Amino acid sequence: MTKHAAQPVKHFKTVKAYGAADKGNKVWRCxxxxxxxxxxxxxxxxxxxxxxxxxxxLKGTINKEKLLRREQGRDAAIAELGGALTGAGAELDxxxxxxxxxxxxxxxxxxxxxxxxxxxxxxxxxxSAAIITANEQTQRVPKDGATAQGxxxxxxHVATRWVDRSARKTIHKCDGLLPQRRRLLAGCxxxxxxxxxxxxxxxxxxxxxxxxxxxxxxxxMDNASTCAAAGRMVExxxxxxFSMPCTAHSIDLMLEQFGxxxxxxxxxxxxxxVVKFFMxxxxxxxxxxxxxxxxxxxxxxxxxxxxNFIMLDSVQDLYLPLxxxxxxxxxxxxxxxxxxxxxxAAATETxxxxxxxxxxxxxxxxxEKLLQLLKLSDGVGPTMSKIYGGMDAVVESLxxxxxxxxxxxxxxxEIIMRRWNTMTSLLHCAAMFCDPEFRDxxxxxxxxxxxxxxxxxxxxxxPTEYKELNEEVNCWIKGTSKFRSERALxxxxxxxxTRWWRKWCTELPNxxxxxxxxxxxxxxxxxxxxxxxxxxxxxxx
Length: 541
What we know:
This protein is mainly alpha-helical. It has helices at 3-9, 45-49, 64-80, 103-114, 125-139, 153-165, 196-211, 225-237, 247-259, 262-280, 282-292, 306-317, 319-324, 341-351, 354-377, 387-400, 406-423, 426-434, 447-460, 466-478, 486-492, 497-504, 509-519; strands spanning 12-17, 26-30, 36-39, 185-188, 218-221, 242-245, 537-540. Helix 8 links the parallel strand 5 and strand 6 (242-245). It holds the Pfam family DUF659. It comes from Chara braunii (Braun's stonewort).
């Protein structure tokens, strides 16, 4: 083989001989576009020089990184054979892929490719700027992971890296009308993960003093051990400020432990396979949409474990539409590709299995009350006073369920109580005691609730106020004021606790001001935004 013919051969793989063996004809496969060509080695040059090597035809079958490397190899082959470069590799969008490539790396790769041969055009600053601009445009597009501040996860990651490299500065973004002291929530995004609990404490202390110590009721912390340690340091430095974990995140962690129980895990995995099959195949999904009148199955999230049980609820809600699909004339194995027919058979078997549906109902019983409490705690509005009573209701509900064995009940209760012991706060106890909804529950007989309430009272009360406060608390317990009227009792269960206190408890002036502040608090780090359950510290004002 001549040197002229050997140049393009190294970019091909020999598949098999073609025609007469003595003629040298073979079937060649291009290394970059996977396209076959027949003939002798001397004809392979035309594959590159006449533009027949189309790597773009593989888009969707390989990831962007592999596609980029093939584009670069194709351009190098064209340059080596003396052809004109198209620059397709440089125009490839690098910023919107599951296998995302960093902007700086992309610029470096393109520069190396363009200068790999003497025939290639040298990379200019304009080329790099074009790539960077394309990535910046991609970052400006809102994505599913947007935080409560309107920042995408991509930009949030950049901000965190900047803080880590900066001179230990604090990024804290106060929420709304802080100068007027009317906001209940102020968020502090700490950005010094290497500093540990002491570093977080320094940032929190700065923000608390900037807001005003007397205006802060507590801090809602992430559940990481570093944040828990920082919370204890805050309590030691500011005697009237209490730390508590994010309630929504704590409930999510309970559901994660539920999912690790053997019989629960089996049902969740089968349900996930059913959802994946019906939502990932177009013709199957269309058939379900017709039978369900537009309702769809909920997909589970990768790190939000509560979504597994929300997915289970959606499967149960679409029980009849799913079963109706099997009576449709279009339900046959040809509705999917031949390589996916084993998935078709598995989904059919699962949906027709009555034991599976019995398991779905049983698993739903484990999470029904927890999901209701999660929705409450992660909602917008005051929820602090409802958490303690809500957790009691969850435990009592599990104990009363007849579908669980004694061992299963003990296992579920142990998971809840272990997390509840780390998640409960004095503020939960004090808020529940002050909530008019629970006033007739005789909470004065509960040692844990009363211990939390009095600890909270003595954290802000002055010694000169102790006598008056004792009289007001006794009045609240005995119900010897106008808040025991029929009208007040009727409004206790329907309205907001803070408004109820303002209207009916004017005879308790010392307790009134602090109770309103406490009852107006939420219980999660970032209500309505599950992406901020972790890594966020919030102040309750």
